Amino acid sequence: MKVGAALTAPCRAWVESVALLNSSRERTIGDYRRTYHALVALALAMPLAARGASAQAPGTITGVVTNAISGAPVANARVTVRGFPDTAMTDGEGWYTLEGVVPGLVKVYAQSIGYVPIMTPYYSVMPNSTRYVDFKLAPLVVQLDTLRITGARPGRGRGSEVITREQLPSQGSILDALRGAVAGLRVTGRHDGTRVKARSSRSDMLYVIDGIVVRPPLTFHIDAQDVDCVEIRRGYRAVSEYKASLNSEPYSGVILIWTRGSIDRRPAECFNGS
């Protein structure tokens, strides 16, 4: 609603009523009533028009993109709002600013060469306001110590469970989704410190995202709707092929996550359903 359009009719009625009262002819009770009603209409129209005008004002999203492991800023990362063409690039200190964001619920997407892309949950953007959204991108290459495994590959084993896209919720964190979908998993922490443990074990579970090993805690958000398939392998033996060395930290299992578009090898149940 335009302010001018909202105020035109009440203002015109008010001006005409005032002019009528100021005229030389004798004023009647009807003249005073018309002036009163015009003033009431004008008072009601002004806040509505102001709200209509402010609702059109865009908002701003800004924040910093850092390396999830080292904490160093990530320069030249691309940040976009899902569904909108505008793009912002991070500077040398990892900062970005997206202006002209349409108010409402939005998801923000960050990606950079050499890092796992992230899409946030919904954020509320208000008119004429700034929303701060930070990202911690996990490197696609994790430097591991040399590990030589002899004998047969551990494989999936009896403690393995596959969850397909159809079994996952349409939104929310993938780890929160596992909390209710897989028995025997304990999910603790939120946002920057989410950890998953198997059964009564005190050890965390390791993560493998699109073939990349990520040590706990998981410090970045993975939306369940962006995941194609998840496999949970319980037990210390199931993790041996992903550990940095035989003497590295023990894990109670491994969670393998395949996001949409990933070409990394995955179980047949991911394609056929379980």
Secondary structure layout plus pairing:
Layout: H1 3-22, H2 29-55, E1 59-67, E2 78-81, E3 87-89, E4 95-101, E5 104-106, E6 108-111, E7 118-119, E8 123-125, E9 130-132, E10 135-137, E11 160-164, H3 174-181, E12 185-188, E13 195-198, E14 206-209, E15 212-214, E16 227-234, E17 253-259, H4 269-272
Parallel strand pairs: 1-9, 1-10, 14-17
Antiparallel strand pairs: 1-4, 2-3, 2-6, 5-8, 6-7, 11-16, 12-13, 14-15, 16-17
Summarize the structure in words:
With 274 residues, the protein is of the alpha+beta class. 22% of the residues lie in helices and 28% in strands. The chain has four helices and 17 strands. A hairpin with a 5-residue loop joins β2 (78-81) and β3. The longest helix has 27 residues, at 29-55.
Quick take:
With 274 residues, the protein is of the alpha+beta class. 22% of the residues lie in helices and 28% in strands. Helix 1 runs antiparallel to helix 2.
Top keywords for this entry?
4 helices, 4-stranded mixed beta sheet, single chain, alpha+beta, 274 residues, 5-stranded mixed beta sheet
Give the terminus-to-terminus CA distance. 52 Å
Structural class, judged by helices and strands?
alpha+beta
Beta-strand level of the residues, as a percent range?
A: 25-35%
Return the average pLDDT rounded to an integer. Answer: 75
* Poorly predicted segments: 1-7, 142-157
Summarize the amount of helix as a percent range.
Answer: 10-25%
Secondary structure tally, helices: 4
Biggest sheet features:
5 strands, mixed
Number of strands: 17
Sheet with most strands: strand arrangement: 11-16-17-14-15
Radius of gyration: 29 Å
